[in-house]
């Protein structure tokens, strides 16, 4: 029988028994003084580390001026952020949300509304891919298609057709008269750090153009510099029609965004969508500073360099522990370790060694450090992961 928790929080997350008092850069500190190297970044959220002084100053300055007004009024900080995002991407219009799931909801609604406005209301179905994760709302769990997320919540939201990743024939077979769009993550995060090939991304763009479909990209986790480009779609050169962002865009402040071309966004007229908190002055002021920093070419080049360094050190780890580490995968600072032991055991051993990582599908351990991490912290990560591997090997011998 499980112990009764000493708090009143819902038990939906499987929480580790750690309570952090403060953070600084890539480090988190417990009340007893123990410090942990954070290679989870709140699941790719703390893009510029904990308690970043630049972001703290922006937040404080904005908090002393204006926290929130309804978005029935113009918000200068939001308009400035939208302008910057559009200048840096394929998009012409932006809708701000509070989370990635809400950004995906907006993307789904925008795609459906586009065809409604064209006089084709029966075109609402969206092709998605096995291994995806698009959020926890009723529509996004249906888009994800994982039975574990859908079970117990009543009838699944209609309109999503899931096919295997990289299966061209399956994509073509799934296209019908009701198909409106294809939704894909350029790198599957929760699915196990699975990058989509450039060839497949280009195929999807071609098939969308051929059948007058919209290409929707879920860059909630892969966007905002995580792969070494501002947006992961830049690696393939494939431009979407709609894109969802969140996580790292606020550097820890809750904010998301749905971006779209003018042609597609024009169907979202007043009254078709809304968000009480979405795009408020606090959120967009902080996100504006994050984008200003992360979009700088030198910053992104440094992410790529640090990613290569970390990848090489992980390759060393794999060479030393070939019976423990099966594969290293990913791009930039969006990396995964596929161990031969359960990922949960590897993560627990890492915690004991003072490094925090996150699990994913396909028995993968995600490494998502802050994008402004230093070389010294990359070396420290290797040292702590090495200690975790040594501990796991010792347990294997004893077992």
Short description:
This protein is α/β, with parallel strands linked by helices and 399 residues long. 39% of the residues lie in helices and 18% in strands.
Structural commentary:
The protein has 399 residues and is an alpha/beta fold. The protein has two domains: 20-52 and 297-398, Aspartate Aminotransferase, domain 1; 66-294, 3-Layer(aba) Sandwich (Aspartate Aminotransferase, domain 2). Helix content is 39%, strand content 18%. It contains 13 helices and 17 strands. It has helices at residues 41-44, 53-63, 76-88, 100-117, 138-144, 147-150, 168-174, 198-211, 262-265, 281-294, 297-320, 343-352, 375-398; strands at 20-24, 27-30, 35-38, 93-97, 125-129, 160-163, 179-184, 187-188, 194-195, 214-218, 242-245, 256-260, 325-331, 334-339, 355-356, 358-360, 364-367. The chain has a seven-stranded mixed beta sheet, sandwiched between helices. Strands 1-2-3-15 form a four-stranded mixed beta sheet. The protein has a four-stranded antiparallel beta sheet with strand order 13-14-17-16, with helices on one face. A hairpin with a 4-residue loop joins β2 (27-30) and β3. α3 (76-88) runs parallel beside α10 (281-294). The relative contact order is 0.16.
Distance between the termini: 26 Å
State the secondary-structure class. Answer: alpha/beta
Query: What level of helicity do the residues show?
Result: 25-40%
CATH class of the largest domain: Alpha Beta
Average pLDDT works out at 96
Number of strands: 17
Number of helices: 13
Sum up the overall morphology in one term. globular
């Amino acid at each position: 029988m499980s112990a009764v928790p000493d708090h009143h929080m819902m038990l939906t997350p499987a929480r580790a028994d750690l309570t952090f008092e403060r953070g600084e850069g890539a480090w988190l500190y417990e009340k007893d003084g123990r410090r942990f190297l954070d290679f989870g970044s709140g699941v790719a959220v703390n893009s510029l580390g904990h308690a970043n002084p630049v972001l703290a100053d922006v937040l404080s300055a904005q908090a002393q001026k204006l926290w929130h007004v309804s978005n029935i009024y113009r918000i200068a900080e939001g308009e400035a952020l939208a302008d910057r995002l559009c200048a840096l991407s394929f998009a012409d219009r932006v809708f701000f949300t509070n989370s990635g799931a809400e950004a995906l909801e907006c993307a789904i609604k925008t795609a459906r509304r586009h065809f409604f406005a064209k006089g084709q209301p029966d075109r609402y179905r969206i092709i998605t891919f096995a291994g995806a994760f698009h959020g926890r709302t009723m529509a996004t769990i249906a888009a994800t298609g994982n039975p574990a997320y859908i079970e117990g919540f009543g009838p699944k939201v209609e309109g999503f057709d899931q096919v295997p990743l990289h299966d061209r024939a399956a994509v073509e077979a799934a296209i019908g008269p009701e198909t409106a769009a294809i939704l894909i993550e350029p790198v599957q995060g929760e699915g196990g750090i699975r990058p989509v090939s450039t060839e497949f991304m280009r195929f999807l763009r071609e098939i969308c153009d051929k059948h007058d479909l919209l290409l929707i990209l879920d860059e909630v986790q892969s966007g905002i510099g995580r792969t070494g480009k501002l947006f992961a779609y830049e690696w393939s050169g494939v431009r979407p029609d709609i894109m969802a962002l969140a996580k790292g865009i606020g550097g820890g402040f809750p904010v998301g965004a749905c971006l779209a071309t003018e042609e597609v966004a024009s169907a979202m007229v007043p009254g078709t969508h809304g968000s009480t908190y979405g795009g408020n002055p606090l959120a967009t002021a902080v996100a504006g500073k994050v984008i200003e920093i992360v979009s700088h070419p030198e910053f992104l080049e440094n992410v790529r360099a640090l990613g290569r360094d970390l990848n090489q050190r992980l390759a060393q780890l794999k060479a030393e522990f070939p019976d423990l580490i099966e594969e290293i995968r990913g791009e930039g600072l969006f990396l995964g370790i596929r161990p031969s032991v359960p990922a949960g055991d590897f993560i627990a051993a890492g915690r004991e060694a003072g490094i925090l990582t996150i699990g994913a599908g396909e028995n993968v351990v995600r490494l998502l450090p802050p994008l402004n991490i230093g070389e010294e912290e990359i070396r420290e990560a290797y040292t702590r992961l090495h200690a975790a591997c040594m501990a796991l090997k010792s347990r294997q011998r004893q077992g």
